[in-house]
Amino acid sequence: MRRTSVRTFVVAAFATAFVIGPAAAADYPARPITMVVPFSAGGPTDTVTRLVAEAMGKDLGQQIVVENVGGAGGTLGAGRVAKADPDGYTLLLHHIGMATSATLYRKLPYDTLNAFDYVGLVTDVPMTLVARADFEPTDLKSLIEYAKANKDKVTYANAGVGAASHLCGMLFMSKIETVLTTVPYKGTGPAMTDLLGGQVDMMCDQTTNTTNQIKGGKIKAYATTTKQRVASLPDVPTAEEAGLPGFEVGIWHGIYAPKGTSPEVLAKLTASLQTALKDPNVIKRFADLGTAPSSEAEATPDGLKAKLSSEIDRWAPVIKAAGVYAD
């Protein structure tokens, strides 16, 4: 009798688990969702996240709370999400640093490709090479000449190892074969504040963080890192137009969930992301910031996973050649 009771209990437990899983997914989300941004508030990735989180929350019928967990080039926030319960209530919105950290960091607290489930790509943001408003060089050619002649004096701000601004700067220095004095910050928000105040000379940052400052004449723009000019900055030449071919980099963003999240929940999140990217306000705000939503084909788990894998392969040799690593 006891053996039968135990057996009945085990069978019932499995049956209950089977029923509760889909039922819970059907009710998802039943409470607010946290979306982790692995950088400080006020930066470009934070801006993208808040726009998308608001639109997705409206579609899902629950608030998506944005939480900034900065530090270690985005790996602290990513690590937190990797360890979170895979219930769909803790998500990560990360940029290209998700790919480069796989090579930059000797020891990561997670397996980049296998510690997450994928929701979809969000956007691919152009970069701009900018400087304080009163910086002497007037165009990209004179900037390169000035940087080479004053490499020990020119200061380049970035948001820390692995940040988009760090990667863009690393590529720029590689292209001009000159190492500048770098000043790392905990985010592009404080870096931009010091650039505006004249405490540092230059930086490379996403249009989501620089467009309004460029239009307002508060900083000087030398080039964009795109093949074509950015629609919101028609007077800023591409790097190739300005005389630096091959200086191309876009900072793509994607949404991730902890590994083991149910397919039903992931499907809801992907559908919500695709709906959010068609929201007129998101489209307009993205355009104002110099970017555009990802296509429906890209805003999928397969689209994001393929992008992440290819970007790891693309940046690994660049980082190894530069000999830049972090513990």
Automatic annotation (TrEMBL):
Signal sequence residues: 1-25
InterPro entries reported for this sequence: BUG (IPR005064), Bug_dom1 (IPR042100)
Keywords: Signal
Pfam families, per the entry: TctC (PF03401)
Keyword check for Isomerase: no
Keyword Signal: yes
Protein's UniProt name: Tripartite tricarboxylate transporter substrate binding protein BugD
Source species taxonomy: Bacteria, Pseudomonadati, Pseudomonadota, Alphaproteobacteria, Hyphomicrobiales
